[in-house]
Amino acid sequence: MIEVRFHGRGGQGAVTSCELMAQAAIAEGRYAQAFPSFGPERRGAPLQAYLRISDDPIRLREKIYHPNVVVVLDPALLASGAVKDGLKEDGVLVANSSKTVAEVRGQCGYSGRTAVVDAAVIAQQELGVPITNTTMLGALLKAVELVELDSLKAPLDARFGRLAEKNLAALQRAYAETEIEE
Amino acid sequence: MADEGMQSWKTLALGCAMTEPGTSRSFNTGDWRGRQRPVTDREKCIKCGACYILCPDMCYSPDTEAEEEGYWIWNGFYCKGCGICIAECPKDAIEWQDEKEEDKYGQACRT
Amino acid sequence: MAKRVGLEVSLACSEAVKLANVDVIAAYPITPQTHIVEHLSELVADGHLDAEFVPVESEHSAMSACVGSSAAGARTFTSSSAQGLALMHEILFIAPALRLPIVMAVANRSLSGPISIWNDHSDIMAERDIGWIQTFAENGQEVMDLTLHAFKVAEDHRVTLPMIVNLDGFILTHVIEPIEMPSQEEVDAYLPPFEPQQKLDIANPISMGLVGVPEVYTEARKAMLDALEKSYPVIKEHWDGFAQQFGRQYNPIETHHVDDADTVLVTMGSLGETAMTAVDEMRAAGRKVGQVRIRLWRPFPSGDFLDAISGAKTLVVMDRALSPGADSGPVATEIKSLIYATGGGPYVADFVAGLSGRDVTREDFKQMVDKAEAAAAAGDPMTFEMWGVKE
After folding, report:
1. Quick check: C97 and B15 CB within 8 A?
2. Structural domain of residue A157, as residue ranges?
3. Which residues contact C59 (CB under 8 A, 6 or more apart)?
4. Residue finishing a domain among C224, C246, C268
5. Would you say the ipTM is above 0.90?
6. Do C107 and C74 have their domain in common?
């Protein structure tokens, strides 16, 4: 079982990211769980969203305290201690930042495998808005092969309709541009 | 408690429903009346129907057997003797009149 | 053919209601039930479900409208949570008294105060004695399956009672997970169209909801109680039928590793899954721990429960609600009174945990087991503990 924790702010689509990934994994015949840190939705407030993917049925309803992967949608959250909290040493940090991998590592104090992409720029150019959730899925998939890219297409279509293609383009560009250091 | 017409739980209708319609028609609420009944003086009555409209037990109905149309007739089977008709009659045409116990369950009265 | 989809559990509930082809939905939105009725409203508005959606002005009106529509012979559904369920309170007693097979999903949430939108069982425990059949789901699949089962049981002429399916707010309602969605043909084969046993019909008039004078009230309550007690074999029969149709078996009391267990965890609702994983981990470490999950809460499956715990020395009950002023939480109170009648039985430790959505982890369950075993060995008084309360 792989556990992923997303850090974002209300309105940035962290919950949607988890849902799309879960739907893709389930479409592959696997088991998955996507859930938000429950509470009133407040635009701009820091929040976490959770994703579990497994080849076996998942019998757990607790939050994710020791994630294998952490995804940070908002660069301003990198310096908060919450990002590194419980992240396994052999885990992966996937960050949206215009900084280098070394600088990001310095910001959040994590020395493990780190993937960085300037998702804000990609999202702005591809989607016309700085909402990075689908873009960051490209970075996540490059860092960890959680699902096949093809499996994400149907969930993207269902979620975004005519905008699905642009989201997919942003995701694929992020996949290509993500820098990873072990 | 004394078993006065009590029914076994096994024989109650589903959800304690009343499956026979219109049973309130056979309920003799006139039994509750004291020894007085409201009587209309048709000399004073202007046929306005206030008694018919305001009676909470619908005791007044059109008198189809009277020689003159438009009067209302009282039904002692339902009248509880509340006196609303007497209080509300704009012409004070209705008054209490003593009634004998044996008349109480009698047919509708015409005065 | 069933299809496996990744779906939010709330929507799985709505889709089950759609597959049941309900006639009337009367509901008022409230967190965390909102997605259930929102999706049903969409299904009706978009023409996917031929039903009346009555957007009432309060939950009191929602349940009143449900009583009316069910009395008129319509297959009727509603859903609520916490304060909304509390606002339905007085009408909730009327539905079973009139023998109306309404189905309701309760997205369990704490009752205020302080104000809370998060999950526990305080809302439904306040409605324990309303006379509805009540089941608890542990995951999204069970929400879908128990909803279909609820219509089947409620409308059975041997039962004709309203039924609640409880699902934990947020912990289930807001989670996306795999759901086997049965086809319409499969559901139609399981659940025939609603044939009311009795209904308001101008061609054949009856009166419902009459006064129950002292000469009648006791007998009327006895008749309703008798119906609730007699629903038990029908509930089981329709779970067996469900297994034949859909391949998933449900039981009033579910067990996990109880046969040789010294200590048995007792859970109800979605945290049973976390507890099950904790039990597996303790088993792997050589501990003789098992688990009992209460699926049917009303009527309480007393015999099944006592059978399931017959070998246990210690019970670790997790309550998700307080019963202020009582000796323990509502589930433990129930269990202790059952065990007392047997004249022996295990030590019962009770932990009130997970109030207002506070996380209960595998580690918590392991610590509860340790603590309960120590208390049993020491012969401590059998009261309860508010788990994790900060002193």
Report:
1. yes
2. 2-181
3. C28, C30, C80, C84, C85, C87, C88
4. C246
5. yes
6. yes
